[in-house]
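A.,

Following up on our hallway conversation. Structure tokens first:
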């Protein structure tokens, strides 16, 4: 469904006129199947978020390509409604001047619907992410982090996408809230039969939700493992993370 073929990305380092570039992604290739939850786990600075931006087509690779159902994600028409994203920093993910309703309406507007249809759809989506309809008129500053992230998830599923990119989507939340959101994501994935690309530095969360995990290091895929086989992972970085998991 989502195919990544040999993507490369470098960013300029130094000043405006500097020609030096730092390679962030180096020949990255993998596939995410329909309905699969694919984890990408790696240290901070390893290039995970850069990879995420290329996957959803908001940035272009220097080389290689990202195909969604055979067509490039750089074509806005291809990704509209098919791929959505939830990011770590929920405070900047929603416009502070938008009510919950306005935030969720944003992506639905691209489909032609009547006012009543939209209203019903918002009630339904809020209900699906565990929020009462009365939250519709609230502003982000009136909500907790977990509640805002639920709104972001409602917005992400509003167009019934086939794939959602989750970049450290639970990392800024309290641990007890993280568990609730992970459970919610797992339920929604079954209901909508979506694929997730679950970017995280948290191996415990990845082990809970992912079917398969890519171990990412210095802009490259070090290893890919089935979650059921995680204990046999070879890479030193993953072993170190696993050690932490065992001693928790
Ligand atoms: P991760 O999400 O794994 O922490 P990132 O993809 O955010 O990693 O960043 C990887 C590296 O790329 C970092 O060194 C970061 O400074 C650099 N980087 C990311 N985005 C940009 C950008 N737009 N311009 C220049 N450098 C960037
Ligand atoms: Mg990141």
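Then the amino acids I'd put at each of the 248 positions:
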């Amino acid at each position: 469904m989502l195919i990544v073929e040999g993507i490369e990305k470098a960013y300029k380092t130094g000043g405006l006129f500097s020609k030096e570039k730092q390679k962030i992604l180096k020949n990255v290739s993998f596939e995410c199947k329909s309905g699969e939850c694919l984890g990408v786990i790696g240290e901070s600075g390893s290039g995970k978020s850069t990879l995420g931006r290329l996957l959803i087509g908001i940035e272009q690779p220097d080389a290689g390509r990202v195909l969604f159902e055979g067509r490039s994600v750089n074509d806005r028409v291809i990704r509209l409604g098919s791929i959505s994203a939830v990011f770590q920093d929920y405070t900047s993910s929603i416009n502070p001047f938008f009510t919950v309703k306005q935030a969720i309406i944003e992506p639905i507007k691209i489909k032609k619907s009547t006012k009543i249809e939209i209203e019903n759809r918002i009630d339904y989506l809020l209900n699906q992410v565990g929020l009462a309809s009365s939250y519709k008129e609230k502003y982000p500053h009136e909500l907790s982090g977990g509640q805002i992230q639920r709104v972001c998830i409602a917005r992400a599923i509003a167009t019934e996408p086939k794939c959602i990119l989750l970049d450290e989507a639970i990392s800024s939340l309290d641990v007890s809230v993280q568990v609730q959101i992970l459970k919610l994501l797992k339920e929604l994935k079954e209901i909508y039969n979506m694929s997730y690309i679950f970017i995280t530095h948290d191996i415990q969360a990845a082990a809970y939700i992912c079917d398969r995990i890519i171990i990412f290091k210095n802009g490259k895929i070090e290893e890919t493992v089935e979650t059921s086989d995680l204990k046999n992972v070879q890479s030193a970085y993953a072993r170190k993370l696993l050690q932490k998991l065992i001693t928790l």
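Residues 11, 24, 42, 44-50 surround adenosine-5'-diphosphate (ligand 1) (CB under 6 Å). Curious whether your intuition agrees with the design.

B.
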